[in-house]
Amino acid sequence: MRKFLSSAVAATLLCVASGAQAGVTFEAVKKKGFLQCGFAGIPGFSVLDSKGEWTGLDVDMCRAVAAAMFGDASKVKGNVLTAQAKFTALQSGEIDMLSRNTTQTLTRDTTLGLIGVGVNFYDAQGLIVKKAMNVKSVKELDGATICVQPGTTTELNLADYFRSRGLTFKPVLVENYDENFRLLESGRCDAYTNDKSNTAANMRTRLAKPDDWEILTENLSKEPLGPMVRQGDEQWFNIVRWSLNAMLEAEEYGITSKNVDEMLKSTNPNVQRILGVTPGMGKNLGLDDKWAYNIIKQVGNYGESYDRAMGKDSPLKLDRGLNKLWTQGGLMYGWPVR
């Protein structure tokens, strides 16, 4: 009886493993020859450059998955999605992956048929006000009119924060970024709230005199941002998750787009596994062993992506803060590729 049960369990596990490999999304993406991602159109995260090409941290996440799948990071197409349309686009199959500064929450993981893959940017929600108002704390905004995007965790966080502190506010619900900042500049809104990185990027591109404005130091929420995929397709989930981890692991081990070929000679067993020198790491993903090498060679490690999109090599010059590696005092912690 024990032997029979063991055989039954083994057979069940084999079926589960086989099912995980037969990824519907993987096969669909492979068949059409490109990866369709949902973007936000926010500086630093995803914007079209002067050449009409997508750039940004979230774009690099999408490009990394394309590099892992096709060996070609350019096999990407982007859809600009509003906060209200982004989940529907993923649920319907309009996009293969939502790579749009989306907050990971329990409700989103359990009620939408979608699931967060990991965090590629740790953020917090804040409020931007005009310096001339001389406001130094959120409590001084009691009764203020605040612009906020509808149908977002941002709207819910704002209400929670004010209510829990006995404060009131008048919301102005506007989806469009340009319109929000237009209302802010015109004085229709006393403040605007969104993720701090989002606000910092937008104030530089959408306000006529960005130096006249400031983001208050208080954090209204925690905002772990990252890509999402549809539930029930473990192979696709794993490919996206491990593409992110490969970029983080590469930075930790000092593997860059510039030295990756030289690092193929490394005797470090962790580096050998990441770069496919030691075989086997691609098989269980349904990929070849050069999947992570292709990501690093064509897209770079996480630090390279951050510096190019938001950090020292970008117009935004945003400090990495929580997005530094855990070895440097941040929260970015790549899982072992082994």
From TrEMBL:
GO terms for biological process: amino acid transport. Residues 1-22 form the signal peptide. Keywords: Signal, Transport. It comes from the Bacteria. SUPFAM superfamilies: Periplasmic binding protein-like II. It holds the Pfam family SBP_bac_3. The keyword Transport applies. PROSITE patterns: SBP_BACTERIAL_3 (PS01039). Residues 34-263 form the Solute-binding protein family 3/N-terminal domain. Belongs to the bacterial solute-binding protein 3 family. This is Amino acid ABC transporter substrate-binding protein. The lineage of its organism: Bacteria, Pseudomonadati, Pseudomonadota, Betaproteobacteria, Burkholderiales.
